[in-house]
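no rush on this but wanted to send it before i forget. theres a chain ive been looking at and ive put its sequence and its fold in token form underneath. i want to understand how the tokens follow from the sequence so walk me through it. thanks a lot i owe you, the record is right below:
>
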Amino acid sequence: MFFKQLATTDSSLSYFFGCGTVGKAVAVDVVAGDEHWFVDEARKANARICHVVETHVHADHYSGGRNLAELTGAEYCLHESAAVHFPFRKLRDGDVLEAGNTLVKVLHTPGHTLDSICLLVTDKRRGDDPWFALTGDTLFVGAAGRPDIAGRAAEMAGLLFDTLQKKLLTLPGDMEIYPAHQAGSVCGAGLSGKPSSTIGFEKRFNPALRLASREEFVRFVTGNVPPRPAEMERIVAANTTG
């Protein structure tokens, strides 16, 4: 498997990975303006980008995912609940995307937004168990996603707690996690500048994960919400209409 993480100027993290043997690749959370980086990396890897995936409809930056899909002929993929006004492959909880020896399992993880997903990635050449998770804006290094983007902050925070407890924190402690943002982003409070972690480390040291109850978690994340992203309404409109 090849794997690359791209840090952007707005503290977003994008991903490019896949199977060098078969020559298939996946791009995740592409930021507008970075499309040709993915095209160049695919050329270097002698791979075809077969899937472009968004972990949710982003509110803090303009997406380049749909444009990259059109440039490469890849499937553009979002969770089935994404409220966008153009065609896309509708992902459901438990779906598996195949890119040669690389398998990508979809986990529906609502809380930051209703359409949020995480991706469990397996390299079949290493074994049958997932190697790492792309956690989008659901779980960061040192923080959890903000719950107010979709409105109803307390309700969404409760969903986020359930998602973390039932979907992500049940994963093995040595599972690597790669989020969609690092320090400097307004998509969560207290994000680390370290661009990766493990489930076990976050269980021990992430303040949002050390709370004893759902009620404490809701109070914590709703009481530590950063300022809303600049031009959020304009960005969401662009990302939902294309």
The chain has six helices and 14 strands.
